[in-house]
Design brief:
GO terms for molecular function: acyl-CoA dehydrogenase activity; flavin adenine dinucleotide binding. It holds the Pfam family Acyl-CoA_dh_M. It contains 11 helices and 9 strands. It has 393 residues and is of the alpha+beta class. The protein has 3 domains: 113 residues, Acyl-CoA dehydrogenase/oxidase, N-terminal domain (Butyryl-Coa Dehydrogenase, subunit A, domain 1), CATH 1.10.540; 111 residues, Butyryl-CoA Dehydrogenase, subunit A, domain 2 (Beta Barrel); 151 residues, Butyryl-CoA Dehydrogenase, subunit A, domain 3 (Up-down Bundle), CATH 1.20.140.10.
């Protein structure tokens, strides 16, 4: 991983996470996954390292990492165990939105406890009838004096069971000029009246990451919980946060791919056929070379998206590219790693079997890859990313 432009302090943070992953995480993953035991001790380690405060400003007790450093940390976590990265990802997006768009009162209320992990954040966006098309959500927030009443169902809420504060997208009326719904973001506390956890979704992977339905049945929240007190600004605020989320999930996909390549390389150095280890066979060498090249390319594209976001430049196209490419690479590298393992790759005692089940999440999470392709195409066609593309015309 290239950290040549990181400060000494930033490199120390990345190295501290790498040591934690090497000494505390990797030796326990297989047992925790096999027994489906919630990793309480590892979660305590994440809190001690301050990783729930990756996107929280220092003034509120967080690490306030620059986006490229944040991406590097997410990759290291995911390379050890993607589950740990999943605990941090949506939480960091919520913290970023509060830190960037929230009022001072909202920052003071939530960020210090989010930095320590005492409060954990989740995203309540997707609905049964509105996935990628968030403009079609039906969850509505209705003014009621000094409060709003929220009604609707949100699904696929990652960490929704454990979360205490949920960034929730709602409709708050219509724009009189365009006729389109005004979308607003609220910080909804789990303990608020009318908020409940519905169904739990059982997934092919990430069994220790809770993914649930959140029901809002006339949930009463203070008007002061609207992000930034800006009605109708929810989509703009959310898209800014999702750029961070896409960089985080791209970094996590790179970490998964790195883990898969490491497993394939190690197995190839131990497994013998025809009197030599299989990494001596040209066919295996060519496959490993392809895997390594894709991994490094995905890492560099993700780093470039993180650099652009950090610089305050428009990063939706590069963020979409990073998420698209890194997730596709993760799926391809994991499949190639399984081929290197042969039949053993299909056996649950081998790490690659779990990674093979986890990889598809990155193809559909944080916007499906087809949606990300549309984001890329629109930026190409409107000319707003001409400098990034560097086309000769």
């Amino acid at each position: 991983m290239s950290t040549f432009n990181f400060t000494d302090d930033e490199n120390q943070i990345v190295e501290a996470v790498r040591r934690f992953v090497s000494k505390e995480v990797r030796p326990q993953v297989a047992k925790l996954e096999r027994e489906q035991t919630f990793p309480t001790e590892l979660l305590a380690g994440i809190k001690e390292l301050g990783l729930f405060g990756l996107a929280v400003p220092e003034a509120y007790g967080g690490l306030q990492l620059r986006v490229p450093v944040f991406a590097a940390v997410m990759e290291v976590l995911a390379a050890g165990w993607t589950t740990l990265a999943a605990y941090v990802n949506s939480h960091a997006t919520v913290a970023y939105v509060i830190a960037t768009h929230g009022t001072e009162e909202q920052k003071q209320r939530y960020l210090p406890t989010m930095a320590t992990g005492e409060d954990r954040g989740a995203l309540c966006l997707t609905e049964p009838g509105a996935g990628s098309d968030l403009q079609s959500i039906t969850t509505v927030a209705t003014r009621d004096g000094d409060n709003f009443r929220l009604r609707g169902d949100k699904i696929f809420v990652t960490n929704g069971e454990k979360a205490t504060v949920m960034l929730t997208l709602t409709r708050t009326g219509k724009d009189e000029t365009t006729g389109k719904p005004r979308l607003s973001l609220f910080l909804v506390e789990k303990k608020a009246p009318g908020v409940s956890v519905g169904s739990t979704f059982h997934k092919m992977g990430f069994g220790l990451v809770d993914t649930v339905e959140i029901r809002l049945e006339d949930a009463q929240v203070p008007a002061a919980s609207m992000v930034g007190l800006q009605e109708g600004a929810g989509m703009r605020q959310l898209l800014d946060g999702l750029e961070i989320g896409r960089i985080a999930i791209a970094s996590s996909a790179v970490g998964l791919a790195a883990n898969a390549l490491d497993e394939a390389k190690r197995y190839a150095s131990e497994r013998k056929t025809f009197g030599v280890t299989i990494d001596r066979h040209q066919a295996i060498q060519l496959r490993l070379a392809d895997m390594a090249t894709k991994l490094v390319a995905a890492r560099l594209l993700t780093a470039e998206a993180a650099r652009k976001k950090e610089a305050g430049e428009r990063a939706d196209m590069l963020g979409a590219m990073a998420k698209l490419y890194a997730s596709e690479v993760a799926a391809e590298v994991v499949q190639d790693a399984l081929r290197v393992h042969g039949g053993y790759g299909y056996i649950s005692e081998f790490t690659i079997e779990r990674l093979y089940r986890e990889a598809p999440l990155y193809l559909v999470g944080e916007g499906t890859n087809d949606i990300n392709k549309l984001v890329i195409a629109r930026r190409m066609l409107d000319g707003s990313e001409a400098d990034t593309l560097g086309l000769p015309s």
